[in-house]
Amino acid sequence: MLTHTYQSRRGELVEYFDRTAVEAWRRLTSDAPVNRIRATVRAGRDEMRRTLLQWLPEDMHGARVLDAGCGTGALAVEAARRGAQVIAVDLSPMLIALARERLPHDVDGGTIEFVVGDMMDPSLGPFDHVVAMDSLIHYQPDDMVRVLAGLAARTSRSLLVTFAPRTVVLGAMHAIGRLFPRGDRAPAIEPVREPALLRRIGADRALGGWRARRMHRVARGFYISQALEVIRR
Ligand SMILES: C[S@@+](CC[C@H](N)C(=O)[O-])C[C@H]1O[C@@H](n2cnc3c(N)ncnc32)[C@H](O)[C@@H]1O
Which residues line ligand 1 (CB under 6 A)? Predict the structure, then answer.
């Protein structure tokens, strides 16, 4: 069930990632020079992608993977290089077009199907693994857990998700973020304390057959995000 808060935040995210921030995002996800703040974000995001990829099997031949909110597709490419059949979905047609443009010729073994749409769309099919890197951090924690529960129903092995841990530093960064002109701001990030998130996951009946296994926090300058691996019991 898609709540009102989920749908309204999703509308803001399309506007932001497909229009306001598309150029900044294109640059951040390339090798082009960026300022010092963005360089920390780029380094943090690289570390986060490496972490999530480490939590996926080395050999993914025969496995179906959902890159949920794939952006420009960097993680999808690495999963496909390991042989996975990847469905890479994103709300933003512009970012999906960029991901297609950047698709290397050598994802040998695996395949990637890029889709413009919502990760919650059941027509995307069943998966062995779902990875949502920084694509659920803008949703309220209850909506985030609802999305995980929805995805869990069609996933057989693991859900890898990142969330914004509620920390003092992150609070300060948000305060700084509020100083920027409104039009340049990203939709709010919804920080959540780790125990509170784990409690919500534990309490969700649809996630009854699942348990949290690993966590890893990445904190590099302006990038703070925490990876969580949820697996079938
Ligand atoms: C911060 S970006 C991260 C992109 C990519 N995962 C990465 O790490 O490079 C978040 C992305 O999630 C996408 N997104 C947010 N909500 C989504 C949803 N409900 N379904 C599909 N994509 C979504 C946005 O359009 C955006 O491209």
Answer: 10, 13, 17, 69-71, 74, 89-92, 95, 118-119, 133-135
Dihedral over Cα of 55, 102, 218, 43: its sign: positive
- Pocket-testing residue among 12, 18, 38, 90, ligand 1, by greatest number of atoms within 8 A of Cβ: 90
| Residue nearest (by alpha carbon) to ligand 1 atom 17 | 69
Q: Is 80 helix (H, G, I), strand (E, B) or coil?
A: helix
Give just the sign of the alpha carbon dihedral 29, 31, 37, 41: positive
> Ligand 1 centroid vs 167 CA: distance in angstroms?
23
Closest listed residue to residue 130, CA positions, set 114, 101, 153: 153
Average confidence (pLDDT) over 163-188: 68
Note the pLDDT tens digit of each residue in 109-130.
Answer: 899 999 999 999 999 999 999 9
Mean of the per-residue pLDDT values of the chain: 93
